[in-house]
Amino acid sequence: MTGTKQRHVVVVGGGVIGLACAWRLTAAGARVTVVDPAPASGASWVAGGMLAPITEAWPGEERLLELGSASLARWPGFAADLTLAAGADAGLRTSGTVVAAVDSADRAELDGVAEHLRRIGREVDVLTGRELRRLEPTLGPAVRGGLSVPGDHAVDNRALLTALLAALAATPGFRAVDRRATAVGGGRVDLADGSTVDGDVVVLAAGPWSERLHPALRGRLRPVKGEIIRLRARPTALPPPGRTVRAVVSGRPVYLVPRDGDRLVLGATQYEAGFDTDVTVAGVRDLLRDAELVLPGIAEYAIEETSAGLRPVSVDNLPLVGWLEPGLLAATGHGRNGILLAPITADAVLALVHGGAAPPELTTMEGRDEALAQRH
Question: 35: number of CA atoms within 13 Å, CB side?
Fold first, then answer.
């Protein structure tokens, strides 16, 4: 393919992946149309915003760890460029992450994670409960120990999405179409009102709905619901922690991500519930119960919001990026790591639209399908 200059790229999906791809494409000179009935919503708006390849690492997911680490290394430049283009802070926080364990079984689980990371050359600091409380004094006495991971960061997802929209709005070649796509093909997007949007290339970045828009993705994606609670420290309450706090409480994961204005995002529920986005009583109850064991001071916080989003999870937990057919490129299936992987995905889409190759850490769909065929 030729370069992106003067090309018209239609991006289907206005979440963090779609908007990041659209911004990188417009910055390279393409005309870009984003098709989405509600841009900057869904899972991207609900997310905790953790940039945490190390603390998300699990045995068997080494390729995801490598990919996440490569994308995290791109985040400072991505955020700086976006802040300049948008004239607004992209929301990157580099204060690090701690991971807490509340009982001996949880502590053993984290010790196992630390040992796995050491075996693959990733160092973390294993700390006692007292040492963790020196780092984060608001951690409660129930915390028995855990990990310090200063290299895992976070971003204010809503500041990020606002900056992406602002940067796109400032670009003459950008257009938004606030309608729902019903099908996509090479260079064509069918809309719910019967009209179409045509371009030289279509980028399909519609999260879990991508699977419904093209047959090549059927059976390769599923929605996984996650609920969050947004909290605000009242004047009489202890301030939020300075770092992201992740924890394992009786085997259940929970995270608390600080935001400006003495706010916290609390989350980590995961439900296989189809396209249901209701916030459940059980989800809120469990999140608050577990988080209060880790940070007792949140009992004095105000609840500002509860919401749920749908993560697009692929069969192997790796993103689905690559050509589906001439003129149609997929960029979906990022699961719980959409915000972390936005920079490397946007760079991959830009390179592929140019006719080049994706970054080596990101195995495209074609490469994975070819490897699977060779194994069989």
Answer: 28
User: Which conformational region is residue 207 in: left (phi greater than 0), alpha (psi within -120 to 50 degrees), or beta?
Assistant: left
Non-local (6+) Cβ contacts of 84 within 8 A are none
Spell out the residues 6+ positions from residue 123 whose beta carbon is closer than 8 angstroms to its own.
117
Measured over the CA atoms of residue 319, residue 324, residue 330 and residue 333, the dihedral's sign is: negative
- Residue type at position 270: Q
**CA 207 → CA 195, 204, 254, 334, distances in Å?**
22, 9, 23, 8
Q: What number does CATH give the domain 8-62+157-220+315-375?
A: 3.50.50.60
- Domain residue spans in the chain? 8-62+157-220+315-375, 97-150+222-314
Residue range 176-203: average pLDDT?
97
Give per-residue pLDDT as tens, 127-182.
999 999 999 999 999 999 999 999 999 999 999 999 999 999 999 899 999 999 99
d(CA 135, CA 112): 22
CA distance linking residue 143 with residue 299, whole number of Å? 17
pTM of the complete model: 0.94
Q: How far apart are CA 74 and CA 91, in angstroms?
A: 15
Q: Cβ distance 70 to 78 under 8 Å? A: no
Report how far residue 357's alpha carbon sits from residue 118's, in angstroms, rounded to the nearest whole number. 31
Residue 96: strand pairing partners: none
- Token pair for residue 189? 């997007």
Are both 8-62+157-220+315-375 and 97-150+222-314 of the same fold?
Answer: no
1: pLDDT strictly greater than 70: no
Q: Which of 1-15, 18-32, 306-320 has the lowest mean pLDDT?
A: 1-15
Cβ count within 10 A of residue 148: 18
Domain 97-150+222-314 falls in which CATH fold?
A: D-Amino Acid Oxidase; Chain A, domain 2 (3.30.9)
The b-or-e profile of 177-216 (16+ CB within 10 A means b, else e) is beebbeebbebebbbeeeeebebbbbbbbbbbbbbebbeb
CA distance 204 to 269: 27
